[in-house]
Design goal:
Elements: E1 14-15, E2 18-20, E3 23-25, E4 36-40, E5 47-48, E6 51-53, E7 56-58, E8 65-69, E9 84-86, E10 89-90, E11 104-105
Parallel strand pairs: 1-5, 2-6, 3-7, 4-8, 6-9, 7-10
Antiparallel strand pairs: 10-11
Length: 106
């Protein structure tokens, strides 16, 4: 993104993706891992307008759907806007999870 908030998809980013109808289990049990992760690694990068729908996510080291942006300098920009989750079931998620409990709907 520019300092004025304009998106620059040709620079860097993850955008307009659909993560649909997957089974995502047991990621990051030996460290850190999310079921589905949207992250901004450096200043000016973006992860926006993504969709997570109809998935089953359970037993991961971090939350089922994780959005993360690193702390950046005050003049830096980042964009995590517009990502949605619909009809995705997630169950117990802990760093020591070995099996999931009953799922919940988000």
């Amino acid at each position: 993104m520019t300092v004025g908030g304009q998106r620059q998809p040709d620079v860097a980013g993850v955008y307009n993706n659909a993560i649909v109808h997957n089974v995502v289990t047991n990621n990051g049990l030996q460290g850190e891992g999310a079921g589905v992760l949207f992250a901004n690694a450096t200043a000016g990068t973006a992860s926006y307008n993504n969709l997570v729908a109809g998935n089953f996510i359970a037993g991961n080291g971090l939350s089922g759907v994780t959005m993360h942006a690193y702390t950046l300098a005050s003049a830096s920009t980042k964009n995590l806007n517009g990502t949605r989750s619909s009809g995705t079931r997630s169950a117990r998620t802990t760093s020591t999870a070995t099996r999931s409990t009953a799922p919940s709907r988000t």
